[in-house]
């Protein structure tokens, strides 16, 4: 435990800057190697980067009066696509908050089910974790591609399951994000049996508990083996 | 007029500043772990904190949601020990509600809300010690917090207060100068584009003097911008070196 | 057993390395937080590298708010609490004409964490305020008679406003430390009641400190999985724990308050462990407080 005696009257002078996740800086560095890039330049919001004739606007920028301005504080990244104009964007160390967008693959956790739909909390968008949970709904008719009306939610999802789904709608005033699992690669990835043990998938609609050998119904995702969590 | 001389014969103010001189500014970004973005600023003796959460799902009444943009939710509150006399209601009283609304309107102009449809951005500002220029300190702190949170901004928002004494515009008023009566102008600008985000003025002023006051305030905002810019760049350097390249 | 903290980094490294799941630590914290914590607890350490009986780094800054009569800022890891004390004059209560008032108030504003919504103080804030009031009363850290200026006519009211700026668990401990530090920092001016006019005359030039006789310090524990006791829980650990207990001890090793709001039942030995750890914590905090006060006087 540090015993600090503080000299300045600055109230928060003992604070360190927040440590940032190491995962994302790796991404930035690899991007630098893979892509033809100019040396990193710092920019702040409102700084004019270049005109629209020289580059195209990427993420973290906006256009006004045919000039491209930065809208984030970070590093300017210029990517040469090849035939078209290079894309200029601003990258930050921490991933800026992503919102789930239409056709994005999301990882969510089932919170409650009833006969018509399952309510979920969206945890990841792609591979980026979300800091705040967003709520989503998987309707009965969006669970499978075939035999949509004969679906029983109880036999597809249970509360606590981790599900891979795709966003079909951002929803409106009344509802949350609408999701679908009507593809082979979408569905339950991790589920616990009634005994509390993580189950092993045995077919597209069944999972088995390794301890009690009881089989339970789920709509299972066909996931490549290396992506499955052990 | 009060017995205190706000401007001496040599042109110095009560605290020894020149009429167009800002108070000492110290600012820090990324001070809190729970929030998406946070900042702390000290302008002279006024200490303000700003914290940003978002963009996240709309809480409370869903009916406020906009299909094409994010809504901005602000709250301005003063700590009960921030003023000379203990403040009984930290927020919810008329003055705080007015400040809250001003903050909301200012940031709606600056944040690119179209990028986050159907979500909410929360900006909470807390004044720990009030010594004049409360609104300006809040806006400056909130700008730094929004930049820290990685929410896209059109430009920084810099704010400053100004007054007028004996034909000279004074900038960055302290509590003593504010309570002595006389004209007060609060100005929030987007410095690069030189767009005005918010102007508020009370008390009577001859229209000839308005221009000189606005010019003085705008120049002060530009000086403030230079300071805030330095803070943001230093923070970026710090964050990068602490990760290591 | 809660031992004195040693360097837990080696154990922590071992857990991080052997655990293939921790290749993607984000997965674990969001998807299966309980399992993630359990893996560390098996090795007697915690995800942030601390031992079970180790408190987070405590930093203290006194007297930064000049508009308040006394103030202190405490950081316990990421949890940040600021306390400001203002004194006002009022008539003493009818049933105790020789005593003053001490009014604590804990505020958990929405800026400290996304779990709090704007609006009137919630349950947690009100319960914390009551807890602090109980501690002040039970520990007798300040004699209320000291706050009386003239019996039956005038006394001081000390408003202690505690604001949480960053919520990362264990606010009760931090609030008590902030309160104690700001009480020691309070300087009240001399007040005389004028005989003829009956009005109070305040002499701002002469100021004196409060007479703090006892120094209560709190230590909070969380119970995990009905058996493991961890000290100073962070916000994640609080959400996953099955019970809480807070023990307040003063410097004479006397118990001021024991607060156990329901939750898993505890055995006597575990309670004794908690009390022992709280005693050592009191010594640590008093040492820190004295060091900071000394450095302030030196200025």
TrEMBL record, chain A:
Q: State whether keyword Nucleotide-binding applies.
A: no
- Please verify whether the record's keywords include rRNA processing: yes
* Start and end residues of each Exosome complex component N-terminal domain: 42-78
What the entry lists under Pfam families is as follows:
ECR1_N (PF14382), EXOSC1 (PF10447)
The domain of life is Eukaryota
Task: Indicate where this protein resides in the cell.
Answer: Cytoplasm; Nucleus, Nucleolus
Q: Known InterPro entries for this protein? A: Csl4 (IPR039771), EXOSC1_C (IPR019495), Exosome_cplx_N_dom (IPR025721), NA-bd_OB-fold (IPR012340)
Q: Which GO terms describe its molecular function?
A: RNA binding
**UniProt keyword annotations, A-Z:** Cytoplasm, Exosome, Nucleus, Phosphoprotein, RNA-binding, rRNA processing
> Which Gene Ontology BP terms does the record give?
rRNA processing
Gene Ontology cellular-component terms listed: cytoplasm; nuclear exosome (RNase complex); nucleolus
Report the residue ranges that make up the Exosome complex component CSL4 C-terminal domain in this protein. Answer: 130-170
Q: How does it assemble?
A: Component of the RNA exosome core complex (Exo-9), composed of EXOSC1, EXOSC2, EXOSC3, EXOSC4, EXOSC5, EXOSC6, EXOSC7, EXOSC8 and EXOSC9; within the complex interacts with EXOSC6. The catalytically inactive RNA exosome core complex (Exo-9) associates with the catalytic subunit EXOSC10/RRP6. Exo-9 may associate with DIS3 to form the nucleolar exosome complex, or DIS3L to form the cytoplasmic exosome complex. Exo-9 is formed by a hexameric base ring consisting of the heterodimers EXOSC4-EXOSC9, EXOSC5-EXOSC8 and EXOSC6-EXOSC7, and a cap ring consisting of EXOSC1, EXOSC2 and EXOSC3.
Family of the protein in this entry: Belongs to the CSL4 family.
Which named protein is this?
Answer: Exosome complex component CSL4
Lineage per the UniProt record:
Eukaryota, Metazoa, Chordata, Craniata, Vertebrata
Protein's gene: EXOSC1
Automatic annotation (TrEMBL), chain B:
Identify one Gene Ontology CC term for this UniProt entry.
Answer: nucleolus
Q: Which residues form the Exoribonuclease phosphorolytic domain?
A: 21-152, 155-219
**Cell compartments where the protein resides:** Cytoplasm; Nucleus, Nucleolus; Nucleus, Nucleoplasm
Q: What is its main location?
A: cytoplasm
- GO terms, molecular function: RNA binding
> Which residues lie in coiled coils?
none
Has keyword Protease?
no
Q: Which InterPro entries match?
A: ExoRNase_PH_dom1 (IPR001247), ExoRNase_PH_dom2 (IPR015847), ExoRNase_PH_dom2_sf (IPR036345), PNPase/RNase_PH_dom_sf (IPR027408), Ribosomal_Su5_D2-typ_SF (IPR020568), RNase_PH (IPR050080)
Superkingdom of origin: Eukaryota
UniProt entry keywords in alphabetical sequence: Acetylation, Cytoplasm, Exosome, Nucleus, RNA-binding, rRNA processing
Gene Ontology biological-process annotations:
nuclear mRNA surveillance; poly(A)-dependent snoRNA 3'-end processing; rRNA catabolic process; rRNA processing; U4 snRNA 3'-end processing
Q: Which PANTHER family match?
A: EXOSOME COMPLEX COMPONENT, EXOSOME COMPLEX COMPONENT RRP41
Oligomeric form and interacting partners: Component of the RNA exosome core complex (Exo-9), composed of EXOSC1, EXOSC2, EXOSC3, EXOSC4, EXOSC5, EXOSC6, EXOSC7, EXOSC8 and EXOSC9; within the complex interacts with EXOSC2, EXOSC7 and EXOSC9. The catalytically inactive RNA exosome core complex (Exo-9) associates with the catalytic subunit EXOSC10/RRP6. Exo-9 may associate with DIS3 to form the nucleolar exosome complex, or DIS3L to form the cytoplasmic exosome complex.
What family does this belong to? Belongs to the RNase PH family.
> What protein name is recorded for this chain?
Exosome complex component RRP41
UniProtKB/TrEMBL annotation, chain C:
State the coiled-coil residue ranges. none
Entry keyword annotation includes Acetylation? yes
Where is this gene product found? Cytoplasm; Nucleus, Nucleolus
> Which terms are listed as keywords in the entry?
Acetylation, Cytoplasm, Exosome, Nucleus, RNA-binding, rRNA processing
Q: A Gene Ontology MF term for this entry?
A: mRNA 3'-UTR AU-rich region binding
Q: What is the top-level taxon of the source organism?
A: Eukaryota
Cite a single GO BP annotation. Answer: U1 snRNA 3'-end processing
- Family classification: Belongs to the RNase PH family.
Official protein name in the record: Exosome complex component RRP43
Query: Which organism's genome codes for this protein?
Result: Erpetoichthys calabaricus (Rope fish)
